[in-house]
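Human: I hope this is not a bother. Would you mind checking the protein record under this note? Thank you for your patience.
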Amino acid sequence: MGRRIAFISEHASPLAALGGADAGGQNVYVGEVARQLAAKGFQIDIFTRREERELPEVVTFSNNIRIIHVNAGPPEDIPKETLLQYMPAFKADMIRFMVQEQLFYELIHANFFMSAWVAMELKAILGVPFVVTFHALGHIRRIHQGSNDRFPEERIAIEEQAVKEASLIIAECPQDREDLMKYYHAPAEKITIIPCGVNTEELYPLNKSMARSLLGLPYNERILLQLGRMVPRKGVDNVIAALAKVKNGDTKVRLLIVGGDADTAAELARLQQLARELKVGDKVYFAGQKSRQELKYYYAAADLFITTPWYEPFGITPLEAMACGTPVIGSNVGGIKFSVADGQTGALVPPKDPDALARKITALFRSPGVLREMSNNAIRRVNKLFTWELVARDMQAAYERIIGSNVIARPTDFETAQSISL
């Protein structure tokens, strides 16, 4: 029996459909890291909030991985900005499950600040150490979103306390590490950089003509792809504005936008209206949500993948595009400036600058040889630095350091632990 680890990901289940307001990179991260660690022999339970009444309590995700649906608040889809109030119930139900199953975990991996709150509570009650991947930081969000940030004021204080109590903090890129040290005074020795990755068995190079044929897309157009969550900070409006400025002779340029659901209908409507106002409505195609199995065809069909968020803690979609051999133009921010090698696997541009983006798109469309070279470089870079296998190797090393250096006092009376927590 392998070492037993608990993942907490309160709002981001690996089972969720991607592209909605609250479903994106964290969902992928949790599922893929767990899958790779399970292949190394770890026994992993992923605790996530129940969002549908009909969901079973325990779902077998894959070998050695279970997803545990925790009762915390109404069993319905709730914006993550309002979930903090339900975390005491999350903690209590998680302990109830541990008591019921007579489980004890050697380590907890908390994902996001609310999961870190639960992990701190469990550490205090049960003595289980935890590592934390924040995925986004409240200070940085406030800088970029200001009064539009709807997370509660307590978020930053919780993050500051988690930085103090965690055995290790997983930063996803150098910028994340710098932000943790600058805004949270995290000790350098307490931070390790482990990036996100790509499942190269799921996302890989395909023939462009074949991909376009399968998707019913024309062969004689230039295609730009924007894929991800449909929320304002992702800068999809910047891409639409740039499209109106791209100069490509007589060859039509089409923008495919993949993502969005009922929760992001207002943002989609805003983007559609913008496309009409800029007179590019006939060039912008909103494809909606797609399954993980379909994504490789969209990535492969595109000439360029575009992602220009205002800020980005990491950003998995640029890696996915690169794995499929599609060069990336991305904002020169956060994790994107770490994953995209400027001038080699794509290009970096300032966020909120449609003129700069349009100039870069135009220049690359006029340089097919450069695009081909970038495509080859992108595939090589991902396979050398950014696979989930490499991520899991580093994560295992981090876990082993903590588990090996902590004497964990296992409670002898789970009922006592439960009563303390309630």
Notes: The chain has two domains: 4-197+387-421, 208-385. The chain has 16 helices and 14 strands.
